[in-house]
Amino acid sequence: MPIIATVSVWIIPCIILVVFIVGTWKRVPTYETFVEGGKEGGKMAFSLLPFLLGMMVSIAIFRASGAMDAFVEFFSPILTLVGIPADIVPLALVRPISGTAAIGMTTELIASHGPDSFIGRLASTMQGSTDTTLYIITVYFGAVGIKRMGDALKVGLLADFIGIIASIVVVSIVFGS
Fold first, then answer.
1. pLDDT at 160
2. How far is CA 7 from CA 4, 15, 19, 21, 119, in A?
3. Could you tell me which of 89, 88, 95, 93 has the C-alpha nearest to residue 120?
4. What's the pLDDT score for residue 117?
5. Is 103 exposed, middle or buried (0-12, 13-18, 19+ CB in 10 A)?
6. Any transmembrane segments, and where (predicted)?
């Protein structure tokens, strides 16, 4: 087994073991602290459930209603004129919202166009160049109780937009359209 595979298998158990050993050495009630942390994590996950559920239902409604297809069809002539494939637009729209939905769309694009196609390369690059801004803001800001998130949302969506544009430009330059 290569060394990196061995390290990747053993690193997390070793870190947990070191934490328990140091905690015990410093006379911290490690098991009780671990259980208390698990309780807090469960409470936090339960409190975030409505936000995540609302976001997932919204995405499903947006896709199932045909609104996304209508949006893409409406802007398709402009996108073609600029050299952006219309097939990539749903991924660009969903990526800031949901990583899981974006991975599903990327998988569909790669399966239908091929991994070495322009669209396959663009989808892969876009997947790595952008983030799930709305998911991050929902989970992390909701976890710590931040209510005013307007500026973070603007900056995050701007960064996603720049990542999408940069993906298109870089893939067009490197691989051609």
1. 93
2. 5, 12, 18, 20, 35
3. 88
4. 93
5. middle
6. 6-25, 45-62, 74-94, 155-175
pLDDT (0 to 100) of residue 177: 63
Residues of the chain with pLDDT below 70 are 1, 177
Phi, psi (deg, nearest 5) at residue 20: -65, -40
Type of residue numbered 22: V
- Amino acid 29 reads P
Which two three-digit tokens encode residue 16?
């947990």
Say how far apart CA 25 and CA 150 lie, in whole Å: 45
- Spatial neighbors of 9 by CB under 8 A, at least 6 apart, are none
> How far apart are the C-alpha atoms of 81 and 153, rounded to whole Å?
30
Instruction: Please give the pLDDT value at position 115.
Output: 92
Q: What is the pTM of this model?
A: 0.67
Long-range contact list for 113-121, CB < 8 A, 24+ apart? 113/87, 118/85, 118/171, 118/175, 118/176, 118/177, 119/85, 119/87, 119/88, 121/171, 121/175
